[in-house]
Write a structure and sequence with these properties.
Blueprint (H helix, E strand, L loop, with lengths): L4 H10 L1 H27 L6 H4 L18 H25 L6 H24 L6
Helix pairs in contact: 1-2, 4-5
Length: 131
Amino acid sequence: MNFKVNNFFFFFYNNSNFLNLLLFIVFTLIILFVLFNVSYYLMQRNIDIEKLSAYECGFDPFEESLGRFDIKFYIVAILFLIFDLEIVFLFPWSVILFQIPLFSFWIIFYFLFILIIGFLYEWKKGALDWN
């Protein structure tokens, strides 16, 4: 497969939507690079003995910092991701609600029904209780 740089840019030149995307990515990277370097060179570098200590709170740690987390933190994070992804499906559906066929309308309600059953199951099992 012969890949040439000219063919790459020719593709973007002929497709204005992709050209806009390429320009957006390039300008975003330029702004990112400039802002990162400006903030790095303008930051204050006040090195203090207290800042270099392990903890700024004034006392030594009670136990090892790499200790185990309670499993409830992970469960809450996974539940948040599941119910947050629900919005990814519902937002586009709500935008084109009056343009979709009746079958697609009821498919979303089936999706919500399954999601509610999962929510009630988690509630019954006590995954949402924080004791």
